[in-house]
Amino acid sequence: MYQQDALANMVSIIRKGLPKTNTPKKIIIIGAGLAGLVSATLLKEAGHHVIVLEASSRVGGRVFTMREPFSEGLHFEAGAKRIPTTHYLMWEYINKFKLKFNEFINSTPDDWLYVNGLKARRWYYEENPDYFGYPVAPHERGKTASELLRSVAEPLFPSFGRYTDRNIPTQVAQHLDQYSLDSFLRRNPFGEPLSPGAIEKVNVMMGVQGFSEYNAIDVIRAFMPVIMPDVSFYELTDGNDQLPKKLYQQLKEELYFNERVRSICSDVNEVKVTVENTKTGQYSEVRGDTAVVAIPFSALQLVDLEPFDAFSKEKRRAIRDLRYMPATKVGVEFKSRFWEKDGLFGGHMLTDLPSRFTYYPSRDIGKPGPAIVVGTYTLGDDTLPWDSQTEGDKLKFLLHYLAKVHGDVVFDELATAASYVWRQDPFICGDISVLKPEDGTQIAPFIATREGRVHFTGEHTSSHPAWMEGGIESGIRVALEVNNR
Hints:
By secondary structure, the protein is an alpha/beta fold. It folds into 3 domains: about 5-60 and about 240-310 and about 450-485, 3-Layer(bba) Sandwich (FAD/NAD(P)-binding domain), CATH 3.50.50; about 105-135 and about 325-430, Polyamine Oxidase, Chain A, domain 2 (Alpha-Beta Complex); about 135-225, Orthogonal Bundle (Guanine Nucleotide Dissociation Inhibitor, domain 1). Helix content is about 30%, strand content about 20%. The protein contains 18 helices and 23 strands. Helix 2 links the parallel strand 1 and strand 2. The longest helix has 16 residues, at about 390-405. The protein is globular. It starts with a helix and ends with a helix. This is Amine oxidase.
């Protein structure tokens, strides 16, 4: 359910900017991910004095395009990788900056599926949904995992408000807040529950077994674009980091890298932020009228919030309790596109092996020379086998699993590889925000609310958690909030 007025207002702000202020403020923005960059550019254009503090040496946050150690001209999306057609604010910025994009081929009929020791093309599985032998109930036979999941999830779709605060649960969402994804599938308050065999089929074939204990409403909301059958995806041709880099061009005098915030002190008169330079170890102080916190709550836990009573106990609980789902990717450069000889042009391979998802490049299809495959993409508990391995062992295990489908060509064609483990990023401390059962009523109402002179933004405060759209949406929302003070 889209909030048309709210969306139209946000689109207008991207195109025309915020109303010019008559009372310029000094605004400290903590974090240079999409949310921080969007809010900073809008507030600067409105006439405020902004200063952006970024702990790392780059912009983008969880939009992270890796170009090393790969061949020149190649890149690997270690973070956000795809843009649904339904993410309207993202498309406004793409059009505003005239960024090049191409289709992200999320899946194809010729995708390989390797499950329960059996191998089949996607088209064959969709024509024969019982091929992989899951012990589903009689009335569930002949249905793909996607169809089974949609049968229980679709009644929820109208209850998802979009372009409104994540912290306003609908009546349906309040009622279902008690359910984890697993218990929701097992009990289905809307009708026939799924059988244990069907749940296993959904978990494996939809790749959701790594987060079955998380809040059902939140998981389904986050992955709705993937569940919906008619949504197409795109990517920025030169790397998804082109958007944060474009925003940074407007903030070169205001943005400071390698400045890690150690404390935020707020009183009735001002906000004082203490930062540590990660290169020199030197501490300094920045004072302003208002602060915008644009870092994940997982990282905010390491920041002292002072004095204690300047931040409500509800906000402190939200910061402490909000979970961040880990994500891990391994990008592998091969000397040639050997998979295209096997009929794989974009799309992905799905397996019940630890590698789970393998994505083939959608760019430069048919072009000779090297290319990068996302050899494994895992979320939640599925990251555990990978995060404990050395770089060398990650690659060793990954090639072993890829060879089960592609054969020994993966060893012959290997050029180089690199991984990114988001739970090990010291300034992110996880990947995408996700609620636990009962968090929708217990902590969600306090995630986005301001505390005195301190405001909060980020995908975790938005109605599009886990997506770039959420960063943009929340950045616009908080800029409007601050400008209207």
